[in-house]
Predict the structure of Methyl-accepting chemotaxis protein.
Amino acid sequence: MLQSIDNSALKLNNNTEDVKINMEKINKDSQSILESVEQMAIAKSSEAENIVHINNVVQHSLENMEKTAEVSQEVATESQQMNQEMQENWNKVNQVAMYMNTLNDSVQTTTSTVDELQENIQKVNSLLLSIEDIAGQTNLLALNAAIEAARAGEQGKGFAVVAEEVRKLAQQSSEIASLIKDVTHGIFEKSKAAQEKSHEGKQAVEDGKLLLQEITQSFTAMKESFAMISMQLKNNMDTIGQTTEGLQKLSEKIEMAVSVTEENTATTEEIVSTISAQNEFIDIISQSTLQLKNLSQELLKLCKYQGEDLLRVNQK
């Protein structure tokens, strides 16, 4: 009977030793798992923080893109207004160019007319000189005729009267030619001044036309530049719109990732809590196993002492 108890105690001691070793191994493995899961929880938490930070950066970028879109829209509106004003000014410059062409035609006509007037006045002066010369010769002939009539006496009286009348007419013609010459000279001087002014006006009109051409070219270049800027602004706004849409979709995905990460973090924390509770339970089992082992060892000692006592009794 004592031998049977001793064998059972020995088996119990061996079993408790195996249980103790296995529990220690389980405890060690569980502790390793706990540490790994805790590291995973820390990593998940850090990952969640990083994702939240990225989401904040994306949100900030999205706000900046929206502000940029607003500013670009304002710039596009201002550019469109300036382009309209530029178009109006360009139309006005074209109207001025048309007026300048009309003025140029008028100045050309006036200049040609004044030039012809100068030529005609010079021709008139030449004719007046001829008239004065003829009047002088006629006056001289009348004087000679009067002298010859005086020599003829009574027979030359009629001829003398005619010669006197011719002389008077010649003198009047000379005086009228002189007056006309004075008038034409005044007209010539005035027309000469008008001619100079006409040529100056013609040159001014030509200079104005050249200046208007340069201004028109400048307005055309500015108009093309505004058109190009408007197109670039439109392309930029389209790009900003696409980028904003992409950022919004990215933000939605990041928010989903944050939600999933938070759920994973919560699940990991629950696993950590469960493993911690399990480790505590394993510690309790290990302590109970250790107590059981100690009891089995005491039982073995007790059986050993009982066996020795029985052996001494039998020897007596």
